[in-house]
Design goal:
Blueprint (H helix, E strand, L loop, with lengths): L19 E6 L4 H4 L11 E5 L2 E6 L2 H12 L17 E8 L6 E10 L2 E6 L5 H11 L6 E5 L6 H18 L3 E7 L6 E10 L5 E9 L20 E7 L7 H18 L4 H7 L7 H13 L13 E12 L7 E12 L5 E12 L8 E2 L2 H12 L2 E2 L20 E2 L18 H13 L10 H7 L15 H10 L2 H11 L19 H13 L2 H4 L13 E4 L2 E4 L16 H10 L14 H4 L4 H12 L23 H8 L13 H11 L5 H4 L18 E3 L2 E3 L14 H10 L1 E2 L3 E2 L4 H8 L4 H13 L9 H9 L7 H10 L1 H4 L4 E3 L2 E3 L6 H4 L4 H9 L21 H15 L9 H10 L3
Helix pairs in contact: 3-4, 5-9, 12-18, 13-17, 19-23, 21-22, 21-23, 25-29, 28-30, 29-30
């Protein structure tokens, strides 16, 4: 519930710690409440005092759920579906006709000594006081009324006030009334549908009967509620009170059409398209094709857990309020079903809407609120406002991905104007059938119903046993590398090309989705690697040095000839997660698909939307040409079999939301370990105890970020945040080299996300006493350096003005303390030499200032003297570097 405030002062109401929450049942009767014990939920009790009946619990969602279950339980005498004999395909469906009649109305009552304090929106007049006295027996002088600022129906507000005081007096504790649930008479609509197919597999007969039990009225033949073409159609709708919503008709029709298609081994989407008139429904057909392409319809996710079943379902609807301009909606739902618990997790929703009979100019997305409302209602769940691990806290959710949970309030029943969301229940039901082989014929699809339908236990999936990584490594130990790669290629076959498409219009996605995609691109540093010096952004051509040779980055702009303009989402997703290009060839692991495979479907779709909405630039980057046998890309299949661990990031329920968000960004889009973890002889990252213990990138040392770091002062969460967000940590130095553009990207991203990354990385190091920066700096000042006169003179003349022992922030940016600088304490001098020779001419952020380079001022002998002096002066506890003159020459030669 929202924060309640007093009407006059505007101050928030301080809720008592031991308060109970209640949901009041309106128009109750004894027979109805007799069902309460059967639907008992632990921690919830039904309290009846006089004319007040309510469910009370220590959480309002529990009380409200119990009240809804009681008033929503169908009566035993609900009429059966109408049988339709004589047709080979026949099925019956039902739709609950208890729209969510929950009405919010707040009131709080508690005892303060001999006085009853009441917070209410009801008029604080003599009539209210009299009702309170009559209901409870308290004296009028002992009732203190505080007015809430919320304005609600005065009759309900008065009823809530009386109920709060009455229940408080009965249960002996402070009580907060959250709202009311009403009782309806009609319980369930039933649908009987039958059909037959001709010899060509086309619909021949179609019979459709819909009824509302317990409602008097004459049967009436209505307009055929199906858009699908059949030669003989008959429709009978008995709904004189018009209680059946359009979503109910859509659920029955789309579930049945899915059944027919699957019974005849037909693709459900193709079967529908075959029965939509190509002239009358040209616009609808285009919408369905677009949604199917966006969702990569035609394949199911890889089954990797015998307890979890994956399913995909499709549903479509037409709205004919305006016959001249019909509206259409198409949904594809991906979900997981836990066979043991019955829990259903909606993983992804791709939904589109359009209007018009002929070719559509544009196709829009379905608003997230409608997706959330319809999907949560179909599953019998409530939505949380809490973001999942792939969403920035406080960010707006995108329409194609949902995170469902069991709290907060369900939105009201969707009206006819909400055509966008009417296919939701059918799409989910069809996905459930795809996952389990069980047809669910009435929503909601609660865990209890799903578990009962599946027999209450997990069923192992039929299929060949998986070949684990251990068996391949055993082969690697027993035989030659070539033999292992040859075997791996047989287990990981080459992939077929994915057909090119026409570049999608930017209007296909919402502005929020594209904006989210921009953030993902910044987290992933796409432009950093895919932009050549002096080249167009993301047009490719940057050469990346690897131990195996130079790898050139590709064109990521939506140019159809040289970029990804003709890539479908399925092709893009495969490249990002599996390292397989659209044409089927393997990408080299210099592209960090091993990290991107952890990204969520929502983020992947948003990234695709962002890249496709950018300007197309025709540019053909240089071809990557590695020496034999590394130029045989098929061998990468063997590498993938050994080292690619596919699968989205799974949050750790024992950890905080910030920790999970940070790990998702660090290990996924951010691919931090690609540089900060060591690699083996085959170029694969070393994990386990070596995770984040230091690596290399583009000739730079990527220092350890965990407990073994050589930094004089250990990294703290605040230091990590400062460094990532601003490019400077007083305790560690300035971002340079490959980290500078990374920080430049992170500086534009939400503070909460950068803090989450810092929080996660800091958690990797054991808690230890951290040396004070000033103490470390003072210890280096006390060192007397003998025999290093040349290096000292160079330092005093070129460096001391900015890097004196006091350091800090000057007029021209930051002045790091060298005694705390990570580069000075590293095991190799490369990073320090690179910075001294090349300077920092493009700082990560404007506030840092620049540093001049000295490669043209000092030769390699002078560089060696200077670095020797810096090491001895500012890292006296570290061993001296050796062969510095040769190291300087090497760094100078490879300078870019």
């Amino acid at each position: 519930m929202d924060v309640m405030r007093e009407r006059d002062s505007g101050k928030p109401v301080l809720l008592p710690e031991s308060m109970l929450y209640a949901c009041v049942v309106l128009d109750f009767d004894a027979a109805l409440l007799q069902r309460a014990p059967e639907l008992h939920t632990e921690g919830v009790r039904c309290v009846v005092v006089g004319n007040v009946a309510a469910f009370v619990a220590d959480r309002f969602d529990l009380a409200c759920d119990a009240a809804r279950r009681v008033v929503g339980t169908p009566d035993a005498d609900v009429s059966l579906p109408v049988p339709l004999a004589g047709l080979p395909h026949e099925a019956h469906y039902a739709w609950p006709l208890y729209p969510d009649t929950f009405t919010p109305c707040e009131a709080i009552a508690r005892v303060d000594g001999d006085c009853v304090s009441l917070w209410t929106s009801a008029p604080a007049n003599a009539d209210l006081v009299a009702k309170l006295v009559n209901a409870t027996g308290f004296s009028a002088d002992g009732i203190e009324i505080h007015s809430l600022e919320k304005s609600v129906d005065s009759t309900l507000a008065t009823h809530a006030a009386v109920a709060a005081v009455t229940l408080m007096n009965e249960v002996g504790s402070a009580v907060c009334i959250g709202g009311f649930v009403s009782v309806l008479t009609a319980r369930e609509a039933t649908f009987s549908i039958a059909a037959s197919l001709d010899d060509q597999g086309a619909l021949l007969d179609w019979q459709y009967v819909a009824r509302t039990p317990g409602v008097s009225g004459d049967e009436a033949t209505a307009q055929d509620p199906t858009p699908y073409v059949s030669r003989r159609a008959k429709t009978l709708i008995d709904d004189p009170a018009r209680l059946i919503p359009s979503a109910a008709h859509t659920f029955a029709r789309e579930s049945f059409i899915d059944e027919i298609a699957r019974d005849n081994n037909r693709d459900p989407v193709s079967f529908r398209l075959d029965h939509l008139d190509p002239v009358e429904y040209d616009g609808a057909r285009e919408l369905i094709n677009t949604v199917a392409e966006r969702a990569a319809w035609g394949g199911k996710p890889k089954q990797s857990n015998t307890d979890i079943a994956h399913g995909r379902g499709f549903a479509f609807d037409e709205h004919k309020t305006d016959p001249a301009t019909p509206a259409y909606s198409a949904w594809i739902v991906d979900l997981d079903v836990n066979r043991a618990t019955g829990d259903v997790a909606v993983k992804r929703v791709v939904a589109g809407r359009a209007s018009g009979r002929r070719k559509l100019g544009s196709i829009g997305g379905v608003p997230a609120r409608l997706i959330a409302a319809a999907a949560s209602r179909a599953l019998g769940l409530r939505l949380t406002a809490r973001p999942s691990h792939d969403e920035t806290p406080g960010a707006q959710a995108v329409s194609h991905e949902l995170a469902l949970a069991s709290s907060a309030d369900v939105p009201a029943e969707l009206t006819a104007e909400s055509i966008d969301a009417s296919p939701a229940a059918a799409a989910i039901a069809n996905a459930l059938f795809d996952a389990t082989g069980v047809r669910f014929r009435a929503p909601p699809f609660t865990p209890e119903r799903v578990r009962a339908a599946l027999g209450g236990s997990a069923s192992p999936m039929v299929g060949a046993p998986r070949r684990g990584k251990r068996s391949l490594k055993a082969l690697l130990a027993a035989g030659s590398l070539g033999g292992v790669i040859g075997l791996a290629c047989t287990l990981w076959p080459l992939r077929a090309p994915i057909e090119p498409i026409a570049r999608p219009l930017a209007s296909t996605w919402s502005e929020a989705t594209i904006a989210r995609g921009r953030q993902i691109a910044e987290f992933g540093d796409c432009a950093v690697c895919h932009t050549a010096p002096g080249g167009a952004v993301n047009a490719g051509g940057l050469g990346l040095e690897t131990p195996f040779g130079m790898v050139y980055t590709t064109n990521l702009t939506p140019d159809p000839k040289t970029g990804i303009g003709n890539w479908s989402f399925a092709a893009f997703d495969r490249a990002m997660r599996q390292g397989i290009s659209r044409d089927g060839h393997h990408l080299y692991p210099a592209f960090p698909y091993t990290a991107f495979t952890k990204m969520s479907e929502a983020d992947m779709t948003a990234l695709y939307a962002y890249l496709m909405s950018q300007p197309a630039i025709e540019n053909s980057p240089p071809q990557t040409r590695l020496p034999f046998p590394l130029n045989q890309r098929a061998l990468v299949a063997g590498w993938n079999a050994l080292y690619l661990k596919q699968g989205e990031f799974k949050p750790d329920p024992a950890r905080s939301a910030s920790w999970n968000r940070g790990r998702y960004l660090v290990d996924g889009a951010g691919h931090c370990s690609a540089c900060h973890s060591p690699r083996n002889a085959f170029g694969a990252e070393k994990g386990g105890r070596l995770y984040m213990t230091g690596g290399s990138a583009e000739g730079w040392v990527a220092p350890s970020l965990v407990g073994n770091s050589k930094a004089p002062v250990k990294w703290t969460e605040q230091a990590l945040y400062d460094y990532l967000k601003t490019g400077f940590s007083h305790e560690h130095g300035v971002a340079a080299g490959p980290m500078a553009p990374v920080v430049a990207s992170l500086s534009t991203l939400p503070e909460a996300d950068v803090r989450a990354m810092a929080h996660y990385v800091a958690s990797l190091s054991p808690t230890a006493e951290v040396a004070e920066p000033t103490r470390v700096a003072q210890s280096s000042e006390a060192v007397t350096v003998q025999g290093l006169d040349s290096g000292r003179r160079i330092f005093d003349g070129a460096c001391a003005v900015c890097h004196a022992a006091t350091g800090g922030v000057g007029n021209f940016g930051v002045r790091p303390l060298l005694s705390l600088n990570t580069s000075v304490s590293e095991a190799t001098p490369d990073n320090l030499l690179k910075v001294i020779q090349n300077g920092i001419d493009v700082p990560a952020t404007d506030a840092l200032g620049y540093m001049p380079g000295f490669k043209d001022s000092f030769d390699d002998r002078q560089m060696a003297d200077l670095v020797t002096y810096i090491r001895a002066s500012f890292a006296p506890n570290e061993a001296p570097w050796k062969d510095l003159e040769q190291a300087s020459a090497r760094v100078r030669k490879h300078a870019h």
